Amino acid sequence: MRITVAHDFLPKTCTVRAARVMDHFGIGFEQGRHHLAEDLDLPIRSGDVVLFTGPSGSGKSSLMRAAALQLQGPSGGGVVSADAGEGPPGARVLWIEDLPAGDELLVDALPLETLDAMQLLAQCGLSEARLLLRRPCELSDGQRYRFRLARALAEKPDWIVADEFTATLDRTLAKVIAFNIRRLAERTGTGFLLATTHEDVAQDLSPDVQVRCGLEGTFEVVRAEARESPAAMGPAGRKKKESASRGSCGSARRPVATGRISLGGIIGVTDWR
Ligand SMILES: Nc1ncnc2c1ncn2[C@@H]1O[C@H](COP(=O)(O)OP(=O)(O)OP(=O)(O)O)[C@@H](O)[C@H]1O
């Protein structure tokens, strides 16, 4: 896939304060197009995990969006994505941030068999039983992000796109989710386009393609042909810690547990919030 990425600067009206900035710094409104990448070769294949990293403003979101739009088919918006790609056009692409969280209980929300739904939620970092009985609006931002990820995976799209990947998660959990995404990609064949400023997930994600964006407009594209097996690259400290109960969840009456400590990857209590 070859992509050209540029943003069109919008027309603006000069205000008093804008005029002061112009006078002070000797600049005017930018005009025309802001070119970020020209005919960049991204060796993306279906089912790949692609990670865009770099500091804020380096262009990772723009590049990722252009790549996703090209996989999706006709482009749109302010980002120009040009040229014929190698991948099949018209792939089904789900954007995590566009997915509605919905209003159903988590355990009911995925269009899968109960155990499969629970397993997927657990793999996405929602392995605490009581969370299954909540609605998405009763989750933290990080939990909702993980729920959206599970929701997206349950749809079995060709590609899942996530900007600010793992930004709302603590770093240990971010690594666990990255590791699980690698395994889910291999198991389901769904590809991932992920952008983040946090390079620390790269080792656990073990991306097929990593695009490192630099503030100087440079892009380093690395395709890992011979990847280490994910099992050998598990995140440090991935083993779950024993943890005490987090106290009452506010239920009126607590049913007696059936005796199982684990069901579909879900366990009674974890240290994840
Ligand atoms: N609509 C736009 N018009 C002009 N320039 C834009 C537009 N959107 C983004 N840019 C510029 O393009 C560059 C890349 O932006 P982009 O959002 O891709 O960066 P990023 O690496 O994802 O940053 P962040 O981590 O802060 O989200 C930045 O310099 C930004 O100011």
UniProtKB/TrEMBL annotation:
Q: Which residues form the ABC transporter domain?
A: 16-239
The species this protein belongs to is Caulifigura coniformis
> Which Gene3D superfamilies does the annotation name?
P-loop containing nucleotide triphosphate hydrolases
Q: Which gene encodes it?
A: artM
Q: Could you tell me the superkingdom of the organism this chain comes from? A: Bacteria
Single annotated GO MF: ATP hydrolysis activity
Q: Biased-composition ranges for Low complexity? A: 245-254
Q: Which PANTHER family match?
A: ABC TRANSPORTER ABCH.1, IMPORT ATP-BINDING PROTEIN
| InterPro entries in the record | AAA+_ATPase, ABC_transporter-like_ATP-bd, ABC_transpr_LolD-like, P-loop_NTPase
What are the entry keywords? ATP-binding, Nucleotide-binding
Stretches the record annotates as Disordered: 226-255
Q: Which SMART domains match?
A: AAA
Q: Which Pfam families does the UniProt record give?
A: ABC_tran
Gene Ontology, cellular component aspect: plasma membrane
Protein name, per record: Arginine transport ATP-binding protein ArtM
